[in-house]
Every structure is written in C-alpha cells, then in structure tokens.
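Lab intake sheet, docking and co-folding queue.

SAMPLE TYPE: protein with bound small molecule
LIGAND NAME: 5-O-phosphono-D-xylulose
LIGAND FORMAT: SMILES
REQUESTED OUTPUT: full 3D complex as structure tokens
PRIORITY: normal
SUBMITTED BY: R.K., bench team

The fields below were copied directly from the construct record.
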Amino acid sequence: MKYVIGVDLGTSAVKTLLIAQDGTLKAEATREYPLYHEKAGWSEQDPEDWVTGTIGALKELIDLNGITGEDIEGLSFSGQMHGLVLLNDADRPVRRAILWNDTRTTEQCREISHTLGDKLLSVTRNPALEGFTLPKILWVKQNEPDIFAQATHFLLPKDYVRLRLTGTKHMDLSDAAGTLMLDIAGRSWSQEVIAAFEIPQSYCPPLVEAGAYVGTLTPEVSQATGLSTSTRIFAGGADNACGAIGAGILTPGLTLCSIGTSGVILTYEEDASADYAGKVHFFNHGQENAFYAMGVTLAAGYSLSWFRNAFAKGETFDAVLDGVGDIPAGSNGLLFTPYIVGERTPHADAKIRGSFIGIDGSHTRAHFARAVMEGITFSLNESIDIFRNAGKTIDTIISIGGGAKNPLWLQMQADIFRANVVALTNEQGPGLGAAMLAAVGSGWFPTLEACGKVFVKHDRVYHPNEAVSGQYEQLFRIYQQAYSQTAGLNHSLYAFRN
Ligand SMILES: Nc1ncnc2c1ncn2[C@@H]1O[C@H](COP(=O)(O)OP(=O)(O)O)[C@@H](O)[C@H]1O
Ligand SMILES: O=C(CO)[C@@H](O)[C@H](O)COP(=O)(O)O
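RESULT FIELD (auto-filled):
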C-alpha cells in the first residue's frame, strides 16, 4: 500500500496525517508546542519547537503503524500564515518567530499605508494589518536593530520546517501572498514594495507553486523519522489555502467556514479581478492561477479555548459545552464579542477587546459557553455579509476545523449564516489539503479537482431552521452595534493592559 503525508503546522500543534490512495486517513500523530505572550498583544513561538514537534510526530506516524518509509510516496505541508522567521546566513533564526496573531505592529502598519498609498491595495491587494509579515520585519528593524543586523533573509513558519527537513529554501505563492510584499496578480515579489522599505531582494526566498517538487529529506531527518530519502517533498501552502483544497473549494461558487484558532470565511476566486476594496483579504490559492478572498476572526476557536482555560480548566470541549443545547438562541440575552486578541474583519483594530454584554443573575456557565459560540459565529457572519453585499451568492458552506466537531455548532452556523452547512467525514482540515498536494505531485491524480473527487467526502448537511434564523438575524443586528459601542471604552483601557 502506498501513502502520502500531510503536515499541518498549526498554531497550537503540528498535526501529521497518513493518507492512503483512496483518501482514507490511516493514522495521525500530533505534537503541541507553547505560545509565548511576553506582553499584551505579543505572540511568539520558538521555530525549534516546530522542527522537534514535526520530527517527533513523523516518527510516531511511521513507528506505530507498521509501515516502512518506502511506503510513503510524497509529503507536503500546510502552515500557519504570516509568521516572521528571520534567519542569519547560517539559516538559523536570529530570534523567536513573531506570529500571525501578534498585534504589536500598529505603528508600522500606519507607516506602510502612508508610504505606499493606493499602491498597497492595487499591488498587494490587502491593507496593512498587524498580523502580516512586512510590518513585523519593520518592527524588528526599528526596535531590535542589533538582532536585525544579524538577519540576512526570512521565511514563513512551514518554509522554515521544510528547510530543516530538506535543506532547500523556498516560499510558495499562497503563503507569500500573506507577507504584504507579493504582487498578487503578477505572482512575484513586488519590487516597489520591497524597495520602499529598503529590503534587499536577497531577503526574499525563491517563489514556487504550492504543488512544486522541492527535494527530498536529508539523511539525518530520514534517520530520525524512519522516512525514506526517496519520498518526494512538495512545497505546500498557507493553512487557509490548504484548508480550502482539503474541503474541495477548487471551483467558483464554493465557500468555506473554518473555525480553528482563528476563524475564516473564504470564497474561491478564479482570477484576480474581484475588488472587495480591502475589506477582506485577497490571496493566491494553492491551486495554480487561482485566488481566494477571506474574512478573518482572530480569536474564533481561541475564544472557546480561552473560556475553557479560564473557567473550566482540564475539561473536554464536550464537557464545557454540556447543556448548551438546552439554552435558546441568544443565550437568554447574553452577547459575547470575540475580540479577545483584537480583530481583523470587519474591524481591523488591534486595541479592541471582547465583552460579555447583558449578564443576568440567572445566567449559568452554559449560557456563557453558548454566548461564546454565538459571538464567534456572529463575527464570521460579518464576513459573509461583506461577500453577500458584494454580490456573491452564499448558499452552501463547507465547515472545517475544530469548531466543526460539534453538531450543535454546525446547526448554529446554518442558522446564523442562513445557508446549508456541509460537514466532512473524517474532517482533517488543512492537513488533508497538504496531503492532496502530495498526492497530485506524486502522480496519483492529474489535478487537485480530480483528487478532491476521491479525497473530499461530504457528510451531513445542516439546513437553516427558519424560525431560529429569524431570531439570529435580529440578534446579529444587535451584535453589529457592539463594536462601535465598546471601541472607545476598550481604547481607553489599553493603557492599563500590561
Ligand atoms: N469537540 C469540540 N467542540 C467544539 N469546539 C471544538 C472541539 N474541539 C476543538 N474545538 C475548537 O477548535 C479549536 C481548535 O481547532 P483546530 O482546527 O484544531 O485549531 P488550529 O489548527 O488552529 O490549531 C479549539 O480552540 C476549539 O475552540
Ligand atoms: O492569520 C491567519 C490568516 O490570515 C490565520 O488563519 C493563520 O493562518 C493561522 O490560523 P490557524 O489555523 O492556526 O487558526
């Protein structure tokens, strides 16, 4: 039997999937790693943790499943986007990686917007947001000049892991799109952008397609994992591009909802002509010559994880959500805004923070848990609103990520989004997309669409309940007022955060 492996370098953990030629999941292995929040708004990881975790998970995948390295034909990656890994000339990180959910760079974003003016949107197709990579490079340059002086080039998280596994250095277009330095339509580094901030061309790695063959494992990694040096390694893509591939979002008309640490609503774009005026992100897809637009809720699953850690430590998500189904839509008047690390869509605001509004003496922990789920889903609905207002039809949504594990949440998505929500059997998120890139690269299928027909399997469809949807529509209009009603208070409280 032949297999491919998908490696999903997530924010909370690296997940490795062993996938057979019929698309079935044969095994998986995961390694978690820590996040460092030294100051409010900061979020960092140690790239060495990613490498150790990936090698450990790959070894477990091979060791425990009675297969040999030679059985694995291809391996590819999906990675958390935007994280800055600054490297020296020996290809070693000069500091910890600054992640996508780190919001220290508001000043640098202002500088980028001011310097590039209209060019920013026309070339990079995105506004300057704290999470993107270019502002992080400028932050290190301005705040840690001694460290910056040691750096000679940069990579994104999964590119660094791939470098350590294969010894080859690349960045794929779908991930490069999130640096704010790529000419998205032209599919090349924007000379205008990098020159404007005096970033030498040599800082930017060679660009490849997500499906490109990039090499084989080094003998050391082969020995450490049990994988063979004959396994072909393919570049891989940004986690949202891979999530879209793994959910079969490969043709126009399809929409994805992903609730992982962050949450996204993503729609397929067959060319770069759509213009959302920067209200949503616009990036290159992992499928060649295609694109996608997406709105991002920074703390989607993270809000529920925070709630569990703060108020139900040690409990499973199922235990935390116990009783939530008995509470009516609207959590008996309790509303939650999931801005606990700032927000991106539709309010790009690093200083906003979350609220519970309408706390009543009768509310129990289950009301709070339901309000958290509803608030996250309302936030995602803001992105759906943007797409619908731009003329897109959104009637069917494929739902993935940890949030898709709970049937109640899937029904809530259908009710709030007023769309049919499709769950996948064996939902594996971006890791499956990475495995599909490896399967196509290994010659198992001629195209990603052909692979999707075998690998992506639909499960139950959740239809909106008209009465509940009507209630949620009213609640959503109330939710939409919460940002402007709480922004001033939160901005004043900013000075009191550590
Ligand atoms: N059984 C569950 N029920 C509801 N939500 C869940 C469940 N399991 C995980 N989640 C949510 O999914 C999130 C993790 O999703 P995942 O896709 O694994 O994250 P990432 O890849 O971003 O690290 C958690 O933060 C949690 O909010
Ligand atoms: O910043 C973004 C997208 O722009 C995030 O979606 C990251 O790519 C990480 O996502 P998780 O899968 O860890 O939630």
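REVIEWER NOTE: The chain has a mean pLDDT of 96.
SIGN-OFF: pending second check by T.M.
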